[in-house]
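Re: [help] complex structure
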Amino acid sequence: MKNALENLARPSLVLVNNQSFTYDPYLRAYPQIPKGLALHEIWDMLIIGIFLGVRMNKNYRFAVPEKKKIRLIVDTDCKNEADDQFAVAHFLMTDKFIVKGLIASHFEMNHYIYGKEKTMAASLAEINKVVDIMGLTDEYEHKIFPGAVTALDNEIIPNFSVIAAHGGAEELLRNAAPKPSWGSEFIIEEALQTDDDRPLFIACLGSLTNLASAILARPEICERMTAVCIVGGPYPTGGFEFNLIQDIAAANVVFSSAMPLWQIPENAFKQIAVSLAELQVRVAPYGDIGEYLFTQMVEFNDRMGDVLGWPPGESWGIGDQVTITVLLEEGRRGNYEWRPAPVVSPDMFYVQNPNSRVIKVYNSLDVRFTMEDFYAKLMLNYGNK
Ligand SMILES: [Ca+2]
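Output below.
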């Protein structure tokens, strides 16, 4: 297997690699977005922007009205299995989204391939790889950030029963400590900036550590952005779910916070099922990115050949893309309900917290809308390559 860290040799990330992803809150040494630009730099960016715009949108015979675009941060455990890569490609081909940054999440509860405290680095390398293959390296060079290496390390979980008994969002937030990273710092920076008042969303496709850390460090960001999270088992009971087990404490922070939350639980996100034959026909022929998305999924499927439980063999629950679905579709579709945010128990069951705020919980998602939009964008942007 190729070393997942080799892609970190890109100049903008050498510092990250050398520092082994440790974060020094005093140095604040994460890649800075330039605040002031010389005239020739602005001209260069305009030329690059025009070039990229033509390349990415040359066959879109429509334009998304500027006022209907949204700012977006994508937080992804990109190398965990094989579907985040599809979602990243879908986000970057969608004109409604102004992708301000991509953050790498850890998946430490599934560290067996990459090793302990190396899963975030694997995600970071994979985000860079997908962006490079799509030909967008220059556009996103300063927009890809390492997240936390491990989950929150606080005492929320052991204290859960006490916290739940006291109805406690406030107690949860008081007991939790953030795990700062360049990713969580970027969330805060983007949420608190005042230059662009278009709505800000964060799509969380993996563990919630980075979002929870940002909330704990600067709770005022909750008034300035909305979270769309693929997390949790089906209601009303909950139970095991992969993203949730990565950091149950972080999920409790997000549920208990004041940030508007659209939760997509497992019974909803698993509805986006595709077959490998479908992907061979609809994805693999379209550019280097189409070939990569398909082959990396087939390789992962082969690697898991002796694991009987999952994946099923020739299909995939391509769940991460539902974050795109809910941000693109009409809001009055009625495929969700409003529920009081629960507290999550150590075994991932939902415990009702009658004092909590309400969150939007999706119960169904449109597979046709999701996948046809993705296939069409892939064909329009990479059909001749
Ligand atoms: Ca994921």
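The CA atoms of residues 230 and 264 lie 5 Å apart.
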